[in-house]
Amino acid sequence: MPKPLRIAILASGRGSNFAALLAARERGELPVEFVLVASDKADAPVLQLAQSAGVPTIVLDPREYADRRAYDFALFDCLAASKPDLLVLAGFMRIIDGDAMKPWAGRMINIHPSLLPKYRGLHTHRRALKAGDVEHGASVHYVTAELDGGPVIAQTTLSIEAGDNENTLAARLLPLEHQLLPAVVALIASGRLALGEQGVIFDDAPIRKPLRWQGGELVR
């Protein structure tokens, strides 16, 4: 029987996407082991969530380091010590130094609340509404030095409704994020999905566009 995929989580906030991963594992849908939850904020609720689940945690305060680069290398040294197979950014609200993440190319993913390449960075719901979009969504992508610019793995979409504001749109999207991220991690854990020289590889073939969350599964 193959060993569970070892996962380290980076998060800055409440950890709802991490909670979704924990729930998927408890349902038997994710053959993974969570080896560490790392945060840049000592009061982040995700830390209590991890501790309640018996997952080791660590906090590194950016203010204790000379600059962002020094902080990021220290953070990634801590992550490496836990020997993860995959790093999952689940609401980690920092831009990471490109050199620090180089050893993790193809082994680090992020969930972002927009249909990338639209609306990289912050305030994605506000920007979608301001642009008059009729559709919004979330993306899971491989992390590169380019902000929210790595190869997109999969997306989930929803229609923007009349009367939506930032808060209602975010609230309606979040449950879809909680389906999308575990589904992607499950494909990685099963060996069906990886990053290769030709881009994202799904079932031994490159994908031409992001996988879509449809009917409870990810499809081409």
TrEMBL record:
Enzyme class: transferase
InterPro entries, A to Z: Formyl_transf_N (IPR002376), Formyl_transf_N_sf (IPR036477), GART (IPR004607), GART_AS (IPR001555)
Catalysed conversion reaction: N(1)-(5-phospho-beta-D-ribosyl)glycinamide + (6R)-10-formyltetrahydrofolate = N(2)-formyl-N(1)-(5-phospho-beta-D-ribosyl)glycinamide + (6S)-5,6,7,8-tetrahydrofolate + H(+)
Classification via CDD domains: FMT_core_GART
EC number: 2.1.2.2
Keywords attached to this entry: Purine biosynthesis, Transferase
Domain (Formyl transferase N-terminal) ranges: 6-185
Active site: H112
Matches recorded under PROSITE patterns: GART
Pathway the protein takes part in: Purine metabolism; IMP biosynthesis via de novo pathway; N(2)-formyl-N(1)-(5-phospho-D-ribosyl)glycinamide from N(1)-(5-phospho-D-ribosyl)glycinamide (10-formyl THF route): step 1/1
Residues engaged in binding (6R)-10-formyltetrahydrofolate: R68, M93, R94, I95, I96, N110
Residues involved in N(1)-(5-phospho-beta-D-ribosyl)glycinamide binding: G15, S16, N17
Domain of life from the UniProt record: Bacteria
Site (Raises pKa of active site His): D148
Function, as annotated: Catalyzes the transfer of a formyl group from 10-formyltetrahydrofolate to 5-phospho-ribosyl-glycinamide (GAR), producing 5-phospho-ribosyl-N-formylglycinamide (FGAR) and tetrahydrofolate.
UniProt family annotation: Belongs to the GART family.
PANTHER family, per database record: PHOSPHORIBOSYLGLYCINAMIDE FORMYLTRANSFERASE
Name of the protein described by the UniProt record: Phosphoribosylglycinamide formyltransferase
Organism: Dyella acidisoli
Lineage: Bacteria, Pseudomonadati, Pseudomonadota, Gammaproteobacteria, Lysobacterales
Gene: purN
